[in-house]
Amino acid sequence: MATLTEIATLEEKYIELCKKHGVLPNTAILSAFFEAEVKKSRNERCIMNLLLDRVKYDDFHPLLELCNEIDTSEVEEIDVFVRSSCSLEDHYALSLIRSVNQKLGLVHLHESFERNFWQDFFLQGLSCKVLNVRSLDFHKLNIVGEFTQLHTLILDSNRLLGFGDGCFSCMPNLTYLSMCDTRVSDLWTATAALSKLPSLKELRFQIWICCSDISPLKPQSSSSSPTRVGENTFHESNSEVFEQMDPDLPVEETLHSMDFSYTIPEEDDLDSCSSELNGEVLMREKVRRAKKPYQPNDVSQVGSFTRQFGDVGLKYISSKASPICFKKHYRMYMINSLPRLKVLDNLSIRESDSDRASETYSANFEHLPYRRKNKESVVRVLEKRETRSSKWKSQSSYTRSLCAARMRSSAWPLLRSLPLTRTHQEDENRRLSPRQFEYHPLDPSLMVFGTLDGEVVVLNHESGKIVRYIPSYGAQSSILGLCWLKMCPSMVIAGSADGSLKLYDIQKASSTVTSSSHAASGCVTFDEFDQLTSVHVNSTDKLFLASGYSKDVALYDIGSGTRLQVFANMHQEHINVVKFSNHSPSVFATSSFDKDVKLWDLRQEPSRPCYTASSTKGNVMVCFSPDDRYLLTSAVDNEVRQLLTVDGRLHLNFEIVPTGSSMNYTRSYYMNGNDYIISGSCDENMVRVCCAQTGRRLRDVYLEGNGSDFSMMFVQSLRGDPFRDFNMSVLAAYTRPSSVSEIVKVNLLASRDSTEEESHGLRCYPSNSMGG
After folding, report:
1. What letter would DSSP give residue 58?
2. Which has the closest alpha carbon to 634: 652, 613, 615?
3. DSSP 265
4. Is the C or the N end of the chain the one with fewer CB within 10 Å?
5. pTM of the prediction?
6. Key word Oxidoreductase present in the record (predicted)?
């Protein structure tokens, strides 16, 4: 066995290398040697701290040569710290870190490096055992490089929103993962990424802390000094596992805390500086010894629960919780989706928790669409189809199984923004600003959208090319209502906010974008309906209705181009949306901010509705299911309900969690016929997909901006694709006032192209009640 180089010899070697390169030895490096000698004399592990922020360019070459000899020395481990801005160029810093090789232990980094550093860092991997990355402003994490030695990963206090589909794929030994105080909120993609970690035992997105003045809990060890990462500091009996919104969990649980802390070497201007997590652990130990009540450092988003044990009340506070923790059934969902997990948010997972998680998941979520439980691959489904398996009793059964298989392999749905740029000589490359859109009823490739400037545009959404363009006429006014004629599929009715109503024949419209303002040939103009928000054509294409910021609804005859009647005072507040049924030409529904939805029949006196169904908040919209069996109502702030069309009785309450905002206008539509509904709100960046028969959640789809300033996108409107299962389009608005809205196509059955996936590691990413 080769003799290991002693630390003193290694230090002499470093001084010689400095002389060779004509530079003075770095005092921080010399101090590291001294500390290592002290540890050796005390029979402690011989660990050296490399303070990369104290390394200058002149130190680089001798230090690089020294690191190449570390493997054959007495030094057992090198811990690398970047505590403040680093003067080394990024590629030099990364070369030094990698040169330590197999003896690389802890790596503590933050935002002082540029984007290219992190791309290379996450793409190529590292041999460290513990990695702490903090305060990074990136949207998505996609660590695809080999981190085969890594057992502890700390991603606390980052602006992390989600994960790429290759993330965590090369971390076979990762056991402990902490992502507290991040922006992660998507249960589906988070668990899809985390399920790639075969050794993951402890995960946390928050820290539950007992903060009572009197606690029966005592630490296992009397020592109050922090231990190194990877050792368990506490494992004590505690109160029940707290499942939010569920007070019925059994008592007696184990509060378990993996100690993610370590001491950061002090900086010049501080007597002592330990990590924030270390401070949390020390404070928790004092609390457990009943020395002082706990006051969390960050109380901005804190949840809590209290349990009574005799005369003692134990209170638990959630510290540094990420948004995902506040999702309904969060804990049960994570436990069911990650069956190898032993500890979640420092609360141990018992066998009874796993059983309860399975029950909760089955009652509230669909793992695969159409209740498919077997995880068949697409290839297997196709093989059974070719061999005419008896399982396929119908084309519908085959289609549903194929959809389930495709969705199983598509944890990250494909999202694509449509190119909405118009080009002509006077106004080159100006982006169109969509405000409303509708799929074509017969042609799967077409949709029409109206803009904030009053333009009507027919788009081939498969190719992204504009097929027809109709400019605005007179004063520009937003298009808020659009409806195709079904019997005459080249005709579309457009209604504007200023009340104008026009019927266009798109075959006679221009096929090129032009700034001309002359009237389109074949255009029919109807009497105005002031402050219009909604139009809809009946099933025979003979009549259409208009509603808006009034209590009235107007009925128009399409053939004669005349307004037949105005039905006055149908509601107590303005009628945001009016919809004809899909099959009965005389039946229609109205939704109003007076909290009522009403069903009407033109064959009866319209002064009295067939029935009235009430919500607890103002109704934003209503629509019929494709077979007219149900009415889908959407009230402010996620109050989505399905009613029986025949009598208005409640069939299903989707129980979507409200945000508390009175301006969170919610819209919902059917997808895949009557099978699923999609719902989105203007204060949220997600679309929820729920089973229309059970209300169980199939998936949430999060919208992502394309910029580097993290501007969020919110749902302004949405439609299910009538020709493609589990496809939809979403009209999304940015928070940036300077940005125009986009139409985003979503395919739940296709994965995002890996070549577009966040540049090998990182991707840096106005509400309105009108219309549907």
Report:
1. G
2. 615
3. P
4. N
5. 0.84
6. no
d(CA 446, CA 410): 25
Q: pLDDT tens across 21-73, in order?
A: 999 999 999 999 999 999 989 999 999 999 999 999 999 999 999 988 888 89
Residue 559 banded pLDDT, cuts 50, 70, 90: very high
Tell me which amino acid residue 596 is: D
Per the model's pLDDT, the better-predicted residue between 703 and 546 turns out to be 546
Where do we find the tokens 């080999």? 146
Distance CA 101, CA 117 (A): 18
Neighbour-count burial for 435-471, b at 16+ CB within 10 Å, e otherwise: bbbbbbeeeeebbbbbbbebbbbbbbbeeeebbbbbb
Separation between Cα atoms, residue 317 and residue 304, nearest integer Å: 4
Whether residue 252 contacts residue 240, with contact meaning beta carbons closer than 8 Å, is answered with: yes
Strand segments, DSSP code E, in 239-299 are 253-258
Residue 261 CA to residue 277 CA, distance in Å, equals 5
Mean pLDDT of 509-532: 78
Residues 6+ apart with CB under 8 A from 486: 441, 442, 537, 539, 541
H, E, C per residue of 68-101: CCHHHECCCEEEEECCCCCCCCHHHHHHHHHHCH
- The C-alpha atoms of residue 190 and residue 323 are separated, in whole angstroms, by 12
Domains of the chain: 1-100 (no CATH), 112-209+319-365 (3.80.10.10)
Q: Encode pLDDT of 123-177 as tens digits.
A: 999 999 999 998 887 788 999 999 999 999 999 999 899 998 899 999 999 999 9
- The 3-state DSSP class for residue 300 equals coil
Specify the 3-state DSSP secondary structure of 760. helix
pLDDT level of residue 762 (50, 70, 90 thresholds) = very low
Query: Which one, of 724, 678, 707, lies nearest residue 139 by Cα?
Result: 707
Task: State what percent of residues in the chain have pLDDT above 90.
Answer: 63
Distances from the Cα of 228 to the Cα of 45, 135, 233, angstroms: 11, 22, 10
Residue 32: half-sphere exposure toward Cβ, Cα within 13 Å: 24
Quick check: 145 and 170 in contact, CB under 8 A? Answer: yes
The distance of Cα 201 from the centroid of its chain, to the nearest Å, equals 24
Query: How far apart, in whole angstroms, are the C-alpha atoms of residue 360 and residue 716?
Result: 31
Alpha carbon distance 580, 601 (integer Å): 10
DSSP H or E segment with residue 475: none
| Among candidate residues 237, 325, 346, the one with its CA nearest the CA of residue 281 | 346
Give per-residue burial for 262-296: e unless 16+ CB within 10 Å, then b.
Answer: bebbeeeeeeeebbbbbebbbbbbebbeeeeebeb
